């Protein structure tokens, strides 16, 4: 075991050395070692940053390149482990945390698992001891507070946030005789009722495609709009008690999905499945609820041949936030100080802006949001949509949504019922009771 | 190259020292154990230890990267009243029957056919084995596409007969059939080859004698071939039982989105999937460990029942 460790460390050091050699070999880069954060590291260390996500995922390629050129002593090795969070990344991370080895020096955590991680303070470095408490003013309260764990210590800093828009296929809208301009499309659906009516019109045009992908993307969009109206809760209250049955936010979202499904507007696809991927690419459906990170997913899955076919409009029903991630430093890291510096950089203004440009991941950092580079940014893939402005609008006055420790499990269980209802395996009139039962069971 | 100048000193015959006698004894008694020991060492580390440790974990409320608390048999108690566990058991057994029965019958018939004098016999025999060299996951991925609702081959063929597209994942029967075909496609040939090998050890004169007595080919098959194959059939059934009861890769790939729920209402969730779901989706390691032990017991029972059943094939002697 010991030998093995030494080997890994030497390997890491070698990698760092090689990286430096590569840097200085390039010749062009000026290497300012004066930057206040890098001066501390005496020996070159490699900081492994592990993330997840499909398409462009965290969008750190450019940010990492910039950092590595400026910090010969702290080299970031950025690895996106998988495109799947709940079933691949999260179980793996938990096992590595328990084993005490194998996790990255900096790890990405999705919003759904933040409750779970906050309940396990023993595994994470207190970032406060490296002075990151000072970052509080940079984040909206919602984003900051989710990064505090059960001991009240700061363990994670926010990366992106979702915001909320509606993506649509321009070519299919044209085929159905609907407007295609994003302003006009936004006006088609001020609320969900209007959205339903538009959907019926779309279906009546018989384009061969369905109006929306499946039940669960739209379900999440509505749930995250409704939660702030109901005490900022989704499945759990702040004492970690399941409120799935009593929280009107859940019932309202469920009812809307049932309505859409009964009206035959969904393509009955399971999100994140190969068939769903195929339909994004092949034009199997016309609209999809789009938090900012979904733009990166669509671009990645639809591919260059679909450039310009997808566009972004305002979402029915007002502001909301779905998703977003955090970066944390596991306690097992050998370089907590340097890892904290990397977290500080990637969640800082510069890191946020680079990620937004690369993956469309909308910054949760307030200074980054106000930066003209973000506010004025357009997304070339989506017909030069002013995504900076659209997403800024969508997160105005955003309220935090609370996540319980078992949020991810309950979410998976109840969404399966919705999927079953949409596909016909669960009868409509039995769906709600099964939905509640599945949630109760998953909450244990 | 060197030239040997002096012959090597030869031991005087009949002069055996005590150590060398001990060596010889060791050579005789010890070395065989030494030679087989790597397997048993590996088995101890990767087989026995996990088995014991799983038992230990199953007696706890053991959360992955969380709290652990000794709860005795509570997990087992909860499991045997858990509807979704029994649903997984029924699915596993159901798919085992749907997959294995046609598979063995088909393998037997196939072996019998390949045992005849055919042109290109070697090629045919190799061809039967070919599906086995493909990876399970690749087979499952391809079959899942064939069974896909929107662009799948099977739905396209069915559409010729006016059948509406079937969502194969949606019902128990359709998902079981889909998964069983994946299993059978891969394993029928393998079983056929094993049965064929056994068939070739049956003495020809038995058939000749039967033919002289006027037994038809069919009678020969049921009265000579099948009874003579009994030990091999028992073996094949055992292997299929173990494979069938630990069924995992095919239904997981068939699900498309590996949350291990085996369909929206667990239409095709197997016990193996139930275990992985408990451990790595719900992070209840203790509960998963208990389910793993129950699966072990289930396989033991299944194998025993099969043994009893296959002993009866062709009339017990």
Automatic annotation (TrEMBL), chain A:
SUPFAM superfamilies reported in the protein's UniProt record: Periplasmic binding protein-like II
Keywords, alphabetical: Signal
Signal peptide as annotated in the record: 1-21
Gene3D superfamilies: Periplasmic binding protein-like II
UniProt protein name: Carbohydrate ABC transporter substrate-binding protein
UniProtKB/TrEMBL annotation, chain B:
Keyword Transport found: yes
Main localization of the protein described in the UniProt heading: membrane
InterPro entries: ABC_transporter_permease (IPR051393), MetI-like (IPR000515), MetI-like_sf (IPR035906)
All residue ranges annotated as the ABC transmembrane type-1 domain in the record: 89-306
Keyword Lipid biosynthesis found: no
GO BP terms: transmembrane transport
Subcellular location: Cell membrane
Listed transmembrane segments: 31-53, 85-110, 122-147, 228-249, 287-309
UniProt membrane topology term: Multi-pass membrane protein
One Gene Ontology cellular component annotation held by this UniProt entry: plasma membrane
Protein keywords: Cell membrane, Membrane, Transmembrane, Transmembrane helix, Transport
Family: Belongs to the binding-protein-dependent transport system permease family.
Alphabetical list of PANTHER family matching this protein: ABC TRANSPORTER PERMEASE PROTEIN (PTHR30193), INNER MEMBRANE ABC TRANSPORTER PERMEASE PROTEIN YCJO (PTHR30193:SF37)
Protein name, UniProt field: Sugar ABC transporter permease
């Amino acid at each position: 075991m010991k030998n093995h460790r030494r080997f890994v460390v030497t390997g890491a050091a070698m990698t760092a050395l090689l990286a430096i050699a590569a840097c200085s070999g390039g010749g062009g880069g000026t290497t300012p070692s004066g930057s206040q954060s890098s001066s501390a590291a005496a020996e070159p260390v490699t900081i492994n940053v592990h993330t997840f996500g499909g398409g462009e995922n965290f969008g750190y390629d450019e940010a990492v390149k910039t950092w590595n050129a400026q910090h010969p002593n702290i080299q970031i090795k950025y690895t996106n482990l998988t495109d799947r969070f709940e079933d691949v990344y999260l179980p793996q991370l938990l096992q590595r945390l328990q084993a005490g080895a194998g996790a990255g020096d900096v790890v990405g955590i999705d919003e759904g698992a933040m409750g779970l991680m906050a309940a396990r303070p023993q595994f994470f470095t207190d970032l406060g001891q490296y002075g990151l408490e000072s970052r509080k003013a940079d984040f909206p309260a919602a984003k900051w507070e989710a990064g505090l764990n059960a001991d009240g210590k700061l363990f994670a800093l926010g990366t992106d946030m979702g915001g909320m828009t509606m993506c649509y296929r321009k070519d299919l809208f044209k085929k159905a005789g609907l407007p295609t301009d994003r302003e006009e499309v936004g006006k088609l659906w001020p609320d969900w009722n209007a959205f339903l009516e538009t959907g019926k019109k779309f279906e009546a045009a018989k384009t061969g495609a369905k109006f929306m992908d499946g039940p669960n993307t739209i379900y999440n969009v509505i749930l995250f709009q409704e939660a702030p109206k109901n005490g900022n809760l989704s499945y759990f209250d702040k004492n970690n008690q399941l409120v799935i049955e009593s929280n009107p936010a859940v019932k309202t979202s469920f009812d809307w999905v049932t309505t859409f499904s009964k009206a035959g507007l969904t393509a009955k696809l399971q999100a994140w499945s190969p068939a769903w991927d195929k339909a994004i690419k092949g034009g199997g459906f016309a609209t999809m609820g789009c938090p900012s990170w979904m733009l990166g997913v669509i671009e990645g899955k639809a591919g260059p041949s679909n450039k310009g076919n997808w566009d972004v409009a305002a979402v029915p029903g007002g502001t909301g936030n779905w998703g977003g991630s955090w970066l944390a430093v596991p306690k097992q890291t050998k370089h907590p100080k340097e890892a904290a510096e990397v977290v500080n950089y990637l969640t800082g203004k510069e890191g946020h802006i680079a990620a937004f440009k690369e993956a469309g991941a909308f910054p949760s950092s307030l200074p980054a949001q106000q930066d003209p580079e973000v506010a004025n940014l357009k997304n070339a893939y989506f017909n030069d949509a002013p995504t900076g402005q659209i997403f800024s609008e969508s997160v105005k006055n955003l309220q935090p949504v609370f996540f319980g420790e078992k949020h991810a499990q309950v979410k998976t269980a109840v969404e399966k019922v919705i999927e079953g209802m949409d596909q016909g395996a669960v009868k409509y009139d039995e769906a709600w009771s099964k939905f509640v039962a599945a949630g109760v069971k998953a909450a244990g | 190259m060197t030239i040997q100048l002096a012959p090597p000193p030869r031991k005087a015959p009949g002069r055996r020292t005590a150590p060398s006698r001990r060596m010889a004894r060791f050579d005789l008694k010890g070395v065989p154990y030494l030679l087989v020991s790597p397997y048993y060492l590996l088995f101890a580390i990767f087989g026995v230890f996990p088995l014991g440790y799983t038992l230990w974990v199953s007696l706890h409320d053991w959360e992955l990267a969380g709290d652990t608390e000794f709860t005795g048999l509570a997990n087992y108690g909860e499991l045997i009243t858990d509807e979704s566990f029994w649903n997984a058991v029924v699915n596993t057994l159901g798919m085992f029957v749907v997959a294995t029965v046609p598979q063995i019958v088909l393998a037997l018939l196939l072996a019998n056919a390949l045992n005849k004098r055919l042109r290109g016999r070697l090629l045919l025999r190799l061809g039967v084995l070919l599906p086995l060299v493909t990876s399970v996951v690749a087979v499952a991925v391809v079959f899942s596409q064939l069974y896909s609702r929107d662009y799948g081959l099977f739905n396209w063929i069915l559409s010729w007969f006016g059948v509406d597209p079937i969502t194969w994942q949606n019902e128990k029967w359709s998902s079981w059939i889909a998964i069983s075909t994946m299993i059978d496609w891969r394993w029928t040939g393998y079983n056929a080859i094993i049965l064929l090998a056994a068939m070739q050890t049956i003495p020809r004169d038995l058939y000749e004698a039967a033919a002289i007595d006027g037994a038809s080919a069919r009678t020969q098959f049921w009265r000579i071939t099948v009874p003579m194959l009994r030990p091999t059939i028992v073996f094949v059934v055992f292997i299929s039982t173990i494979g069938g009861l630990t069924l995992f890769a095919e239904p997981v790939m068939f699900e498309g989105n590996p949350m291990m729920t085996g369909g929206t209402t667990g239409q095709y969730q197997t016990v193996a999937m139930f275990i992985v779901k408990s451990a790595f989706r719900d992070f209840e390691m203790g509960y998963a460990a208990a389910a793993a032990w129950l699966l072990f017991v289930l396989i033991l029972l299944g194998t025993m029942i099969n043994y009893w059943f296959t002993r009866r094939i062709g009339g017990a002697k």
